[in-house]
Amino acid sequence: MRFWGRCAAAAMLLLGAGGAMAQEAPMRGKRAGDFVLGFGAVGVLPTNGGTVGLIGGTPNASNSASPLLDGTYFFTPNLALNLIAATTRHQVEVRNSALGTVRLGSVWALPPTLTAQYHFLPTSRISPYVGLGLNVTMFYGYGGSLTPPVTRVRLDPSVGVAPNIGVDYEIAPNWLLNLDAKWILMQPDVSVNSGFIRARADINPFVISGAIRYRF
Q: What is the pLDDT of residues 155-186, one digit of tens each?
């Protein structure tokens, strides 16, 4: 909660500063050939669900947040391709199983997402967009505490689509503020103790980000 409070405060400061700058800055708008690089913060909020063999229960992954780097290239003022890069650490467990809550440790998720976007108002200071992306999530860096008799947990890579909405706010000819939301279809297969227990984790997270962007 403390992290999100700080993010909200930072966003309010950025919007306040952006509003003051925007009153003085001329409008440029989006153009074909623009490349926009963004840096900000992202929150990954799993919706959680799935199935577990043998012991039953529901897989659960914790919320997480991290810095975000993204790039967007405009083929036309309306059509763009966006790529996000971030990695987040999640605590994983099975809830309501025959053994109660079973801790499966922690894992890092690397979910690069390539998204085709349509920008409705490319010449406006406030420019909303929608998109559809392809996500490939890889899992690494296993650790944390495990509930006996669990000794090993692995998550397979996941491939899924990612619907997207967002908005850019131009604060100066080459500077923008961005708010973005994606819902990623992420349903990796899970192997516990080298396949003794198998599961499918329907993580399916909402990925919410805010960033400041520079246009080259």
A: 999 999 999 999 999 999 999 999 999 999 99
Distance CA 152, CA 156 (A): 13
148: amino acid identity, one letter:
P
Q: Report which residue type is found at 73.
A: Y
H helix intervals, the chain: 2-24
CATH at 162: 2.40.160.20
Q: Which domain holds residue 166?
A: 2-215
66: three-class secondary structure by DSSP: strand
Distances (CA, A) of 48 to 3, 40, 111: 22, 25, 16
**pLDDT digits over 181-211, tens only?**
999 999 999 999 999 999 999 999 999 999 9
